[in-house]
TrEMBL record:
This is Serine/threonine-protein phosphatase 2A regulatory subunit B'' subunit gamma. PANTHER family: SERINE/THREONINE-PROTEIN PHOSPHATASE 2A REGULATORY SUBUNIT B'' SUBUNIT GAMMA, SERINE_THREONINE-PROTEIN PHOSPHATASE 2A REGULATORY SUBUNIT B'' SUBUNIT GAMMA. Coiled coil: none annotated. It is found in: Cytoplasm; Nucleus. Pfam families: EF-hand_13. Keywords: Calcium, Cytoplasm, Metal-binding, Nucleus, Repeat. The keyword Phosphoprotein does not apply.
Amino acid sequence: MAKEEGSHWSHVLKRRIAVLEKDERNEEEKKAEETELFTKYYTEWRSGVETDESYKTIPRFYYKLPAEDEVLLQKLREESRAVFLQRKSRELLDNEELQNLWFLLDKHQVPPVSGDEAMINYEAFLQVGEKAGPKCRNFFTARVYSKLLHNDPYGRISIMQFFNYVMRKVWLHQTRIGLSLYDVAGQGYLRESDLENYILELIPTLPQLDGLEKSFYSFYVCTAVRKFFFFLDPLRTGKIKIQDILACSFLDDLLELRDEELSKESQESNWFSAPSALRVYGQYLNLDKDHNGMLSKEELSRYGTATLTSVFLDRVFQECLTYDGEMDYKTYLDFVLALENRKEPAALQYIFKLLDMENLGYLNVFSLNFFFRAIQEQMKLHGQEPVFFQDVKDEIFDMVKPKDPYKITLQDLVNSCQGDTVVSILIDLNGFWTYENREMLVANDDSSNTVDLDET
């Protein structure tokens, strides 16, 4: 076959060459023809004459948004979006339909039981799909079945795992529709005010927040919204894609507050819980010694263990949004989120910007030395023998292993998985002390664990 194709092309090529060789026109005649054709096509183009109208068959895919003064068109668009979202909502399984699906799955389980798990094979799976109704059609596919197929010797899947998969999908679609109702622009993202409205109206549905006073609602909403925007809007565009909100775990944490029996440990570790929000706001009030609702540099210096260096705090007030040299609650929340989550890329980006004084896009030996000098000064104030910068610098570069041996970029810090340790060494005396005494601290932890084991 390949030989025949090769032979065909060789014949075509030979014929083309033969035609060119037979062209007995001289160069001037050929040039005149080229000029004539060029003039013809150029004239058609300039006059707007279109010979090719194939573009008219392309369906329209872009619709211009109505302008601000086109009130009627805006209202029409809002109403059509609302109708569309309502239709999508009706396509989802309701509680009664989910219950019916569970009964069908349970009725079609295939023995033997695997541990405590009821199982179903592919044939029974398809039978349930036929009986479950049109709303369930997308769940009963070979692709879904293969995703849930693990090591069952009979080629079955767990009924509970499949049902949880359906529940999760329904929840995701419900949540997406719920969030889209607050998408005023209708572009698939939420602005800060949109997300504030969503969370404010969500509060009454979360039993774990029943104890919050209404006067605290605005501070709670601000606290909750800041976490979304700090981590999901690193470029500070003022908007977050709904898709990104659904993909992260923050909404799960927020909706976890529906659980009336949520443990104390879970509440303390959940940024959105009432105890956590009250803790952060309480810290802010305690730092605000002059009770003007804002924090000065001196007031912020008492944050945490009061061991952040003055040089680092200077950079915070230089780079972050302040009002007459003082920090408001929203800016404070960004500060807290960065320092409490130093392992996260968004937090490292926040701190890296403060360390990168000259906005070079990297940290060099000069910038490391500049910040570490403040650590050395704090050590002297506490009666400690300062550590040589050269030793610390070598350890930092060994930990990070940057692509350029003289420059540390943000990506280098993230890739090294040591970024939290590096920034702690440079901005916080307590963080540096913890790093310097890490072996002793590990030994103490091991010995205390040994004591606990002996006591048991």
